[in-house]
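Dear Dr. V.,

Thank you for agreeing to look over these. As mentioned in my earlier message, I'm a first-year student in the group and I'm still getting used to reading structure tokens, so any feedback on how I've presented them would be very welcome. I ran two proteins. I've put each sequence directly above its structure. The first is here:
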Amino acid sequence: MQPFPWNTANVVDLPGIGTPVDSLTDPSRTPGGPGARLAAVRAEGLAFKREFATTGTPDSITTCDLVTLPYPTRFGLFRASRAVAPFLSITNRMLVIRWQETDGRARVLLFEPSDVELGQYTPYFDRLSRRTPAPVARLMLTRYATVLEHLATLGIAPQDVDYLLFDHLHTQDLRRWVGTTAYQQDLGGRPEAAFPNAKVIVQRDELAGMAELHPLQKAWYQPAAYRDVPPEAFLPIEGSVVLGPGVAVVKTPGHVFGNQSLVVNTSTGIWVSSENVIAAECLTPEHSKLPGLARWSREWEYEAVLNANTIETTADQYNSVVLEKTLADPSQKDPRFLQFFPSSELTGAWTNPGTKPTFSHRALTHTR
């Protein structure tokens, strides 16, 4: 039985959302080879950045820590790291973004609202957990508040959430967020949607790709978790769109075929968030003090260090990261680094020598 509920045809039939961005083309479909596409994303990125800055700003952005967990160094700092530690630590965080439409309607978007409890059953992390002694696991894993606990602290009712957005659906199990159409054996029932009015914004390419996973993808998705998720829970988009004042989704393929990045305009300028890299210094590795990064990037003439647990289309991911570099403004804390906020940010830990970041954002906050 096919575990994924939709084929490519009926994915296309689902309704979309947002105002399309005409100044950005899909970086993987621009005419020419990868080098020509790289030149195109630089030019298009500058054009969109000027345009996007005029759309305004959202009302607020709040950062919520979810979990710190181990991740292979060879994935997170692709080929560049000379750290002795086989694992580094990354912190997954949710962004809560609020704005008002022109007609006065309030909107709430959750970016990366991961169900950490169910995400641990992603094949790769499940296998890693089974091989890791419990005392070691306790040292490497820290859970903070859950998505619902964070929202309660912020005074946001679940029914007031309009959109759920992920840069991609690796590790994500959405059944408790959007409900299911059938009994779930592992959950002991048929979960009602925690966010009854929310829709999941996702690239059509990712839904189509999940319908029949390639071997390079299988370790990172939980396709069976989508078998009974109602299709109408999704709002697919194709390419880049502006969702509201100072809030956009930009297609950044490569890490997965349908990867997308959050772009927000704030009181400190434009920020970009995704998991294409795991540290701001991976976009300017010449300033990194992490062992190996500056030398590696100089020797290979690479301007970025990718997060490469998947290498579906690595040249496209590199080009997408350059697009993100073009869009993000310099950090006001240290202009050598950019306002790129990794959705999984490298986090120093004594258990992982040689992986303490040179620079960390730790939070993205904004109020108007």
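The second protein is here, in the same arrangement:
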Amino acid sequence: MRITFYGYNTFLIKSGVKKVLIDPGGDFYLFKGWLKSLIPQSQWAAITHILVTHGDPDHYWHVDRIAEKSGAPVICNETMVQEINAKRLLLGPRARGLAFTTEIKNLYTIAHFETLIVDGIEITGIKTVHGPLKIKLGPFSKTLQPGPNKRIGWGSIGFEIRMDKKVIVNLGDTLIHRDEWKTISSPDVLMIPIGGGRVHNTMDEKEALEVAEIIKPRLVIPCHYNCAGLHKKNANPANEKYFYDEVKKLGVDCVILRKNESIEI
């Protein structure tokens, strides 16, 4: 099994003929191709499954385009879908606000703690909650708060993925959930955000370390840190060396993947 990282929380998991894409988002940097696909378009047609952790642009912008190109099923939180005029419509990836406008031919919904099987891959929904996001432009700043009528963090869910005798956990963008995650036990891989120190929209390094100690994975891959955001090259900084060293002290393996780097497990 090969895992490739494309930045933010975009991962491609390849095992045999299966190619599972997590979070088909867009680059969030104004000066480097605003919202261009994080995963190269040359990879789109070969995708076999698409998993979406929530509806923010850096996680979701190209979901319908890749689904159309590949024919892959889309798996997302049940809150990402509404039935309107007898059609099941997905939250519009590029729509403003909570507009359900996009029809996907091959669509599966999942709830927190629910399990479904799609083409031989077993997927369980994990409880996650996106934190507030502070956006600063010069002297002006605005904090976007997740909520029942807010687009930020909409549909937040994590995934426990079981395929080809491996277990991979991806938590998306989330704050810590100590009690709910105690049921997750020793996955082969834990993909975990660590960039919430300055802007607490996700866990920071210390919280992510606490989660690694609770879950006890075999391998940890930190993500969603030192990412570009709007006009900033590094909107959510984290000390990956500190995190790496502290994870190793727990007796757990850790790998730092740069953009477009892969690891085989």
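From my reading of the second output: The first strand starts at residue 2 and ends at 5. The chain is about 10% helix and 30% strand. Does that match how you would interpret it?

Kind regards,
E.
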